[in-house]
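Work package 3, deliverable 3.1, input record:
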Amino acid sequence: MDRRTKRNIIKGVKYLLIAIVTAVWFFPVYWLIATSLKTRLEMFAIPPKWLFNPVPDNFIDVFWERRYGLTPGPTEFPKFLFNSFFISLSSIGLVILIGTLAAYSFSRFELRGKNTWLFFILSTRMLPPIAVVIPIYLMYQRLGLLNNYIGLIALYIMFNMAFAVWMMKGFFDEIPRELDEAAMVDGYSRMGAFRKAVLPQALTGIAATAVFCLIMAWNEFLFAYILSGFDTRTVPVALARIRGESGINWGTITATEVIYITPVIVFTFFLQKYLLRGITFGTVKGR
Amino acid sequence: MKEKNLKWILILPAVIILLFLVFYPLLWSLGLSFYEYSTMIVRPPKFVGLQNFIDVINDPTIWHNFKVTAYFLAVALPLEFLLGFGIALLLYEEFKGRRIVLTILLIPMMLAPIAVGVFYRFIYDSTFGIFTYILSQIGVKQFEWYTYKWVIPCVALVDVWQWTPFMMLILLAGLMAVPQYLYEAASIDRAGWMMKFRYITLPIIKPLVGIAVLFRTMDILKVFDTVFILTDGGPGNASELISFRIYREAFQYFHTGKASALSYIFLVIIIVLTNIYLRFLTRRPAEARVTREV
């Protein structure tokens, strides 16, 4: 066998392995989506149905109760979906605002004990959530913040703060200081320069950080489960109610899941460049 | 406004939130860990000194929780590392469609563990689950994953599916950071790929391996959502990881004091492990490395 054939074989094997890895990793997501579009019979068929006619029934069930023995009418799901959107969106709005200001200061000024402050902020991210949730529960109980939007929003701000500050600091560090200085020479104040000169340059960074924080808030379960009540229940908490259930209605559950994960998958496709950077906390440069 | 004041004012809101929602609660629960207290009973907390800590240490079922957590780590971490490294090597060279492959690999880690737990319950189901079906096709008839023997490896597999891509991404970044000219120079010296790997690639990616392993170790120790939805700690307490036990102590048995003590022991273990890792794996502290890279 000459060198060339040998190299081609190696290449072929490599592509085959890549295809297998990709297929294996995508399969569970595919299977979930496929199941949500199947009829009850097809869903549980053995051997599994690979080919089927997609039907929207399960998705209708998520929004409209029509199961035998239950009163027909709208389900509670839209409320939970609204809660998820409302809590994550409000919290990221605030965390981006607060985090960006802090990051700008960390990026531009000499601060006494700067690295200590930065490490303090980072360290809040290393804590196991379960270790803080008990005292927060007690604190919220006393302040009347259980089953309250403000309680969860504040927590998600805390939860994302380290990430927002570190990410935004990274983006600001890449914008030359001369830009702020030039604006200040033109008569802008420090904050004016920040708003007019630096912020527009950092917009993509802000967007990327926001999406990342949004996904984290959207996905959070433990705090939401322990601190929310019926009125503030989010989608993950609603999903968790299948725990311990034996006769799970898989049609509705899979459809709910698909609705719940779709925004995340769409974001992932469109923003993968930034996500790569975010996930690894800046250790991977966005490519 | 003077810059001197401004720079602190900008940081203030962030710091206040963190102090109020992280450090104040943590101090509170440190205090609580010395009291006998339950959120269920309306009775003032009773000071018991170190009794909660002694209870935790003397409780054999808590040792079991630690063992289960270690077992979970021992299954998931090496698999994630080896698979992640393997896939990173596969994806190292540019090829058509690499972006799509990377995006697909990104999806699992962007999904909520709770959502992933729910659909793995469907996949693992012993009557109609696709996992059971595939196993039966390759000769493993009637596989029951929800058993004392298999539950941890099966939960670990979910973690591997979700987080191997994370390992892969960091290692891939490390591989891409190796300057090409080093390989070229080595080729001129007729070095084989083993030599190149051992003396060029490995030393350069070592700090990143350290970071990846450290992040995964901490996160695996903290796993809660997946176990909560997938196994509920069962069968029996076969998959009761530490986080799950803390949850049970606090919100099912309402032993608030004991749960706080266990949280603290857990916290200290994580901090100690982090420091050992940082010393052992990188000459340069990892946070300095992250600072530089960001």
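Confidence is low (pLDDT under 50) at residues 282-287 of chain A.
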